[in-house]
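Q: Structure tokens for this one, please.
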Amino acid sequence: MNEYKVRKYQPRQGAIISPDVPASKSILNRALILAALANGKVTIACGAYADDTRSLLSCLSALGVQTRKTEDGIIVYGCGGKFPNRTAYIDVQSAGTAARFLTVALAFVGGEYTLTSSQQMQKRPMDVLSVLESAGVHIDYFGERGHFPFRMRSDGLTAEELTVDTDLSTQYASGILLAAACTRSVTLRLTGSRTHGSYIEMTLRLIRAFGADWTRTGDRISVTPAVQPPLRFEVENDLSGACYFYALSLLFSARVLIKRIHKDTAQGDFKFLHLLEEKGVKITDTPNGILADGSGVGTFDGWDADLRDFSDQALTLAALAPFAQTPTRIRGVGHIRNQECDRINAIIENLNALGVPAETDGDDIVIRPAPVRGGRVKTYDDHRVAMAFTLIGLKTGTIVIENPQCCKKTFENYFEIISKLTDPMKR
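A: Here is the predicted structure, written as tokens:
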């Protein structure tokens, strides 16, 4: 389908919204890299997953890694710190984690590889390539320097210390930590404002779960490779995708329960739930998952919030902002200009088109509440734009989402769930 007309949601009194969300892509794709380079077989229990993970699995297959899909996840047969195929053609498609994690891993293990991607990914700078080049990796670019596609030749990284600017992307730092955990000891020096970012902390938790160790002194993290990976690793559900539904607790004074997510989560987007708590939503960790109860909330004021460490939710907060009583300021999200699209521009352009005043103030986004008029939402082929602006449609019933199939990247049945939610006969 080329467009999706969002129907107005009419909540049922006392009902609990409890959709099935996919596995956390951020955790799952990190676990796949670790398992692929580990010694021995690892079973990853993850339930459903989406296109980004399929892309990574395809890349691992091209490198000679054997995997097998099971009823509840994936079995990975680890290769002991080296990929079987020392030359390969790798297509990461639009998967950012595959693009960054695999590129770094290939530099660590060595070999000659040709890497390509979707046109969307080719527009996104790969700043980690300059770090790898300075460490002795030879890269030939087929187009713009620092972008896909390119050919990479590496004899295996020998540098004892690497430096990454976290303001560009914490995924580069995570890629180095993941590769080091399965190959050789490395010290990573972090610069920028996100040196303790949630995704780096997630990576550190995972590499320890896979048997590696690390120490942190100031802005330096020293990694000692894994001795023995786990036989089985459980992946929790995706909190990034769950937040679109948790937002309904505030928007509709509803109760929302997402299974297989708990307060001890490694996912940084849990901080979005704190923003809901500020407005009166009660967040409870139940045996089944986290319950957000907004049944006692009526109107709510806007936010002045720094989303630097959970910036995927900038779009979600922007979708709630038109319905607040006061303006909202979203801080610390300048880096989202270089994601699947320029997400700041996507927020400003789409809100303005819907009659909601929104503007930038440096790297901040300022949104003033206003009545939303009907219109079409340009997704720019960005799954998070599509999913977030659907919230406005659920509230108003006047929104059409263009190119909804872009959600297959991380949440392929998102609009099926939305359709069931808004159809009284299917609830």
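A few notes: The radius of gyration is 21 Å. The chain has 13 helices and 23 strands.
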